[in-house]
Amino acid sequence: MDERGRTRISRTGLNKPGSFLRQRSLEDGSAGAESAGPAAQQPGGGAGASAAAGPAAVDMSRRAPSRSVQLTRRLGLVIFGLAVIALFSGLSPGAFFTHGTLITVITAESIPMMLALAVTITLRLHDLDVSFAAIMILTASIAGELLVANHVSLAVAIIVALAMGLLAGLINGFLVVVLKLSSFIATLGTMSVAEGLALSVSHSTILTGFPAAFTNDMQNGPGGVPLGAIIGWVLLLVLWLAFEYTPFGRYLLFIGGNRTAAELLGLPVRRVRIIAYAVTGILYAAAGIVLAGMLGSVDPTSDATFLLSPLAAAFLGTTVFQLGRFNAWGTAVSVYVLAAISTGLQILGASAWVGDVFEGAALILAIALSRFLSKSSEVDLNL
Amino acid sequence: MAILELDRVSKSFDRHTVLDARQISIRPGYVYGLLGANGSGKSTLVKALAGYHAPDPGSAGRLRGQPIHWPLRTASSGIAVVPQDQALAVEMSIVDNFLVTRRRYRSLIGRVTWRDERGATSDSLRRVGLHRSPEDTVASLTAAERALVEIARSLEEILLTKVSSPLLILDEPTANLAQNDVERVFAATREIADQGGAVIIVNHRMSEVRASCDYLYVLRDGQVAFRGPGNGSDSTEVVTAMFGRAVAASASRMGEKQADPAARRALLLRLSSFAEMSNIGNVDVSGGEVVGITGLVGMGQDILPYQIMGLRKRKNLSVATHGGVLGGGPLEACAAGLALLPADRPTAAFWPAGTVLENYTIGRLSTSTRRLALLSGREHREATMRMISDWNVQADSPDAAMRTLSGGNQQKVQIARAIDRQKCTVLIAHEPTQGIDVAARREVLSALRAFATMERAVIVCGADYEALAEVCDRVIVLKKGSAPVTLCGSELSEESIAQCAMDTAAAVQ
Question: Is A263 within 8 Å of B330 when comparing Cβ atoms?
Fold first, then answer.
């Protein structure tokens, strides 16, 4: 592999300190290396909270007359997020509650945001798709290889990557819907296949040397907010509308809530499920393109870095706004709340290993919380 | 001396008395039959004897001469209940299944002494007339042999307590058995009685029980409505005792029934050669009809609705509508105008955590708006509010979770949702009256009746004979090993359906 003049890497070599690397490389691209440790949170949480007010209000009017207790339960996570911001602002005055930290967090969370939103689609079906990170890295590797080694045009590379994402999603859909395999086990398989293909495509090297125009576009945007983060927010709005105001979004929940009933009612269960998997595949690929542009490099073994926090955010999202339901705004707020905590810990000087421990603990806590707050088995998946 | 003498045993739930039986006497050497319709208190009595319920104060009796102290302690009472569903590990051997409840023959270090275990198992099997090796797997046994294994295991459990005369209660032991298998099970009960024990068989199939039991107790409304020797009792008398009304034939019918069955009406659905358990022959369902399909437990009327819809494999069933023979799943059946009201509403009809609005409007999402249009919240809310008031549904608001509604209210929502569908021409209701209160029952039945206008029909599958007699134009009673019987017109009554269904075995003999 070295004949290509790239650094050969081992799988384990870059996996462990993944989140740390992600942090650093994103900072290089955004506000400047100074704020390496300190990542910002205040407006991150603030954005989540203010954005949350809209759908929460909609939701409240849609629901039965609700008491303040119910309101508190629905908005508990938002309140908690604000408390976290206040706490870390107090503990690290001048480091946490800054514009630089805000931009850093928004930048760093754009990939988890896109993945968490995409995985929310299949979670609404009560299916668990764990192949998202691996498919994202595979499509990013394909785009990178095309751009760097084959010098194809950016548009072609993006189209090919999206097509590969669609194909991967359709394969997942075929396995789960047509062959009726357990979604978790089937996507565990496709995850490993995608990981291997990513290594093959990239010849086990970190792909670098993306066109500067591409990376510059992705890393910059209006008001210093990178384009990648804005793409995530647009996706949030689109999914929110699709979930709440289209038959498709309602079908996802109904099929997830009771597939037998959906079938007996004559709903297009198979079509909806396959479309859901196809769409998520495309979204994973979109996240891969954003990743390549924002990092300016693709590490074909870095998928594990992106595995836990999107799932944790999606599950935590069921504890806010629409209790017991996977919903777009809940997922988005959860992404930023989790980011606020991990960033705060980093600023306080926590060691690198704390990040991994936090991610795992957050996932477990998120699932436990969603279970207890919704007071039903509504969030149990069809595994 | 009698094993068990109950002067009085009563049980109330929420001040509602479900059981108040007097003077029941069980003697060694006899096989007893316990009959009763649904809700007669039959299973409450069995549960009281199993030690599961503590009867109300005032209940008194003697067990082997000693006054009973409620609740009965199963370990020492010498009474065992063999449940209906077989609690056997199918992939394991017979002796393994015995070891689940027995752990006696152990060597000093706690190792299982297989030779002794096998010997004891063989003895127990022989006690019920089953000559199989203890090494055989349960999977290799027939349904009757499995039932015998369970009986043998329960009997052995009692005998281990060293009581003089065991009492075995078999809860619907023959529900899933073919005729010659039924005889094997009854032969085993006779064997137990001959060895000095007593057996109570809880059963639906009256003709079987009459032939095989020495003495019958019939419960109705919690009381003993009939007692008498098995062979000497008149079957009409027993059925009357079970259902309480000898005059069921004159029970009020609902609405306007089809006056002239021969009148030319649109043929909507044809079912043919259904042979899961029994043969349905050909059933034609025409516009304006309400057709009932019933039979004893396990005759196939409980899976038929799901086979018609294509949710379960149709096997030998052919379902034809005006569009041709159905070959696909529920999507195709719904498109062909069929709709199903499942009996098990939480698992097959609703998204239980969803709201009433979401569950009610799910079927109209794609029809009421253009494909890509956004959902109209106001339109759906108004439709749901209208449905709630039209059907008198007890719900806090359209946003109440579906699972918080009572069974009757859920059923109303389900019917309203099915009726809403313009395309729906044949409504298939599976046990539509199950788990709902009396008032809702009336509304549900009249809604079904009203649905069957000129070009629409209803099929009711289930075992609520009273409801079937009330709402159906004709009722098809499925029978094992013989052609189904169709009851219609003046011969259609709750009693005639019951008699026809229960005389299944007699028809074979």
Answer: yes
